[in-house]
Amino acid sequence: MQKKLTVLAHLALLPALLVCAGCFKHGSSVTSEDANPSQREASTPDVSHPDMPSVLDSPARDVAGFDAPAGVGGVGGVPSTDGATGTGGSVGGSSGTTSSGGSGGNMVDAATSAEGGGGVVSGGTVATGGSAKGGTTSSGGTISAGGTASLGGTTQAGGAISTGGTSATGGATTPPDAAPDVAPDVALGPVISSFTSTPSTITAGHSAVLTAVYSNGVAVLDNGLGAIANNGTISTGNLNTTTTYTLTVTGTSGTPVTKTVTVTVVEMPSITSFTVTPTPNCAGQKVTLTPVFVKGTGTIDNGVGAVISGQAVTSGALAVSTDFTLTVTNLAGTNVTLIATATIVRDGFVSVGQMKWPQAKHAATLITAGANAGKVLLTGGGNWDLGTVFPWAQIYDPVTRTFAATPDMNVGRTQHNSVLLPDGKHVLVEGGDANPSGSSSSAPTTGEVFDSDTGQFPAQSLVNMSAQRAVRHTATLLANGAVLITGGGTDLDTAFNSAEVFLPSGGQFSALSATMGSHRFGHAATRLTNGSVLITGGWDPNTELDVAELYTSSSTTSGSFASTIGAMQGGGSGHTSTLLTSGKILIAGGDIASQTYDPATKAFTPTSDSTALFLFRATLLVSGKVLLTDGTVNPPMLYDPATDKFTATKAPMNEARFDSTATLLGDGTVLIAGGSNPSTGGALTTAELYCP
Q: Closest by alpha carbon to 676, among 354, 366, 409, 381?
């Protein structure tokens, strides 16, 4: 009963406690001393206020704890004199601090204590949370509209301490109506990961595909393309100009973002021309390829490779007809192609460039040294239908297959001879007629020399011969470097048995004291491997000769003639005489029966086909065969020493010719140039190659 009266007395103090803002330390908690009775009895309460009497200052007696109004922590029970434990007070109020049932009857830092023994009052836990507005805490009572605070628990919904107190025994205060510990949703701005064009460069009239990868928004493209889905594609449509596209992505928040891509438009490649020269061409020869194109880069197949427009390139040697493909590709990878065919000919004839002027009954010599090495010098000639004789000279270039003019000779000549001198760059041009019909009494009695380095016929090179050798004489280079000149005549009614030599060292002619055994023109002369010269057939002047003789030189200015031991197999004139690789001599063409001469046996032997061929030019080929051209027989004939037979070439010449020249070139082909038209007699300006 005494305790109840005491409680009633303490209730009178509540109004004073409500106005005490500093009665409790902010953030106080129950310490370990609260659980120890001896410490509890010695502890000093830290509760005071100037306007209210301290309950703790009253004499020790058995006083139960009490509840404080909202916002104020309940005061712990005061220990009685006998140490009896009072009922643990509970904290009330909207900001009160919850004690877990005061220890030892002392109030520590606004905690509620129970008397005696320091035990925690089992009812000291607020059931449904800390203090609520006006809530009343019993010894285990329930506070409405609040959270639950257990020992060390967290005060919910109004657990804030108005005076700054904190929950005892580790309890933490959470603001009212706090949300769970989860980050709130935040609206992200639009992002463009990539915006590409495939391909990035296109040919005019073609299209590209645009691909957009983005997030956090919706996207549109300009230039009339419109909306595009994430990771979506859209075609640009056919374009004719370079175009830049802008992708714009707009989100629910943030500034719209953009990205651009440019589709480059290039023009369609074009090929203007693609030529192959020469075509047709001989087997084993190279061709020149000339591409002309725009709007791209060019390549040619068959091992040629990259090419530049307008710049000629050379192929490798071709064995068969070959198609060359020019491919021109622009930056977008679009290409166009054009094919040019190099036609390859075997055992046939191909045309070359036009001669600078017509030539017939002229002379031709391959130069091997000097500025014009590898080229052919063509000199003089005449035109039967016009009755003229030419001083002209021209050069044929086997590389370009073209003719170029040189300065004229000092004297016009026809039916003359030309011989390459030992140095390889000077050519002796001698004799000849001033009338293409061969009946002139004013035929030149001179010779002159062409200089390969200067490309001219120096006037000082013009020197006199020992005789007027107008028609069909011979000129043969000897092993000692001199040139042997035999026979001929002033016209078709005279023939000489005399001979002379030209000495390159002095640039002069010297008559030989020895003479031939027969008067001859229209005969043939060929140097043998032993250095002697075989002279066969001809006219004397009204009789065809069937006799042969050998010239043997004892020096550059002297020598002797002797008849051959063996007799010819029939006579004739206008024929050819060719040294074979075996060392034998082939005598064929003209009106003579074909036969061979063997220096070892000194015998003439008919060939297996010994009929007259009426061909007037013979050329030893690299293969060892002999090509016979010039005349009424077309196609020309080939003599094969291995079979001792004549066969026609696979194809005829492009044009039938009389009085043309045939010259073996360095590449193994034969240049057949000029001549006369068999029908009109007019001199020709055409030329062609024989392809072995």
A: 381
pTM tops 0.85: no
Tell which phi-psi region holds residue 352, choosing left (phi > 0), alpha (psi between -120 and 50) or beta: beta
CA distances from 641 to 140, 226, 613, 645, 662 (A): 140, 86, 17, 7, 20
pLDDT digits (tens, 9 = 90+) for 536-562: 999 998 899 999 999 999 999 999 999
Cβ 239 vs Cβ 197: under 8 Å: no
Structure tokens at 382: 């005449």
- HEC assignment per residue over 620-681: ECCCCCEEEEEECCCCCEEEECCCCEEEECCCCCCCCCECCEEEECCCCCEEEECCECCCCC
365's tokens: 């010599």
CA distance 626 to 629: 10
pLDDT in tens, 644-657: 999 999 999 999 99
Distance CA 199, CA 261 (A): 11
The answer to whether the CB of 127 falls within 8 A of the CB of 141 is: yes
Q: Region 506-514: what's the mean pLDDT?
A: 97
Please state, in angstroms and rounded to a whole number, the distance separating the CA atoms of residues 240 and 132: 79
How far is CA 435 from each of CA 258, 314, 419, 488, 516, rounded to the nearest angstrom? Answer: 94, 45, 22, 15, 27
Contact assessment for residue 430 and residue 410, using Cβ atoms and an 8 Å cutoff: no
User: Is residue 123 very low, low, confident or very high in pLDDT (cuts 50, 70, 90)?
Assistant: very low
Q: What b/e sequence results for 28-55 when a residue is b if at least 16 CB atoms lie within 10 Å of its CB, and e otherwise?
A: bbbeebbeebebbeebebebeeeebeeb
Which residues have CB under 8 Å from 206's CB, separation 6+? 238, 239, 332, 334
Query: What are φ and ψ of residue 461, in 5° steps?
Result: -80, -10
**Three-state DSSP class for 346?**
coil
User: If you search the block for the tokens 């100009």, which residue do you land on?
Assistant: 241
Kindly tell me if the per-residue pLDDT of 225 is higher than 60: yes
The pLDDT tens digits of the residues spanning 165-217 come to 333 334 444 444 444 454 556 678 999 999 999 999 999 999 999 999 999 99
Peptide bond into 280 cis (omega under 30): yes
Of the candidates 567, 479, 575, 557, which has an alpha carbon nearest to the alpha carbon of residue 520? 575
CA-based diameter of the chain, in Å? 189
Three-state DSSP string of 439-488: CCCCCCCEEEEEECCCCECCHHHCEECCCCCCECCEEEECCCCCEEEECC
Residue 19 CB: number of other CB atoms within 10 A?
A: 11
Q: What is the β-pairing status of strands 508-511 and 426-430?
A: unpaired
Question: Which residue, 678, 14, 665, 29, is CA-closest to 350?
Answer: 665
**Which amino acid is located at 262 in the chain?**
T
Q: State the Cα–Cα distance between residues 468 and 84, nearest whole angstrom.
A: 173
525 strand-pairing partners: 535
Q: Do residues 421 and 402 make contact, with C-beta atoms less than 8 angstroms apart?
A: no
Sheet holding 508-511, edge to edge: 474-477, 483-486, 499-503, 508-511
Beta bridge partners of 584: none
**What is d(CA 169, CA 45) in angstroms, rounded to the nearest whole number?**
18
Q: In what order do the strands lie in the sheet with 335-342?
A: 305-307, 297-300, 322-329, 335-342
Give CA 562 to chain center in angstroms.
71
